[in-house]
Write a structure and sequence with these properties.
There is one protein chain. The longest helix is centred in the first third of the chain and has 21 residues. This protein folds into two domains: 29 residues; 88 residues, Electron Transport, Fmn-binding Protein, Chain A (Pnp Oxidase, Chain A, Roll), CATH 2.30.110.10. The N and C termini lie far apart (81 Å). With 155 residues, it is α+β, with helices and mostly antiparallel strands. The protein contains three helices and seven strands, in the order αββββαββαβ.
Length: 155
């Protein structure tokens, strides 16, 4: 006697529940670790002035906040070249369009927020490390706080 194997695919409700649970766990665990992979609004935390972003070599990611119609923040990879901080963008990104309209941005590196100015560069030595077709911006420190966050306490 041969056995009959039948495989049933999960019901649409079960697939939906599995997907919802996976999404909730991913976002929940990411939030607990301080990483939210989704774009967000305004950055929160204390704001500090810096003369250089060379210290960012110890970071892997940063959050960049642009000021378009409303604050918009995204997670980006930290790229340091010759001690200078760069970010790259694919054309058409919402944050890129806001950056083009207003180059004054804020960067969150670790637990502090720094005012910066995003300046596009076409210098080959800075563009070469990135994928072709990307727009490259150097993040220059600004020496004024935005007034959007309290200053960090001085120790």
């Amino acid at each position: 006697m041969r056995s009959r194997e039948t495989t049933r695919s999960p019901s649409p409700l079960r697939r939906f529940c599995q997907a919802a649970l996976t999404l909730a766990l991913t976002l929940g665990l990411g939030a607990c670790a301080g990483l939210n992979p989704l774009p967000g609004g305004a950055l929160t935390g204390c704001e500090e002035i810096t003369e250089s972003f060379a210290f960012a070599q110890t970071a892997t990611l940063l959050r960049l906040e642009t000021r378009g119609d409303a604050p918009y923040s995204v997670w980006l990879r930290v790229t340091l070249i010759e001690g200078r901080l760069f970010v790259d963008a694919a054309p058409g990104r919402k944050w890129l369009e806001a950056l083009k309209r207003n180059p004054k941005v804020r960067l969150q590196i670790a637990d502090k927020i720094y005012p910066a100015l995003g300046v596009r560069t076409n210098e080959p030595r800075f563009v070469q490390p990135f994928l072709s077709g990307r727009l490259i911006f150097e993040m220059l420190p600004r020496d004024e706080t935005s007034g959007l966050s309290p200053s960090c306490p001085r120790l």
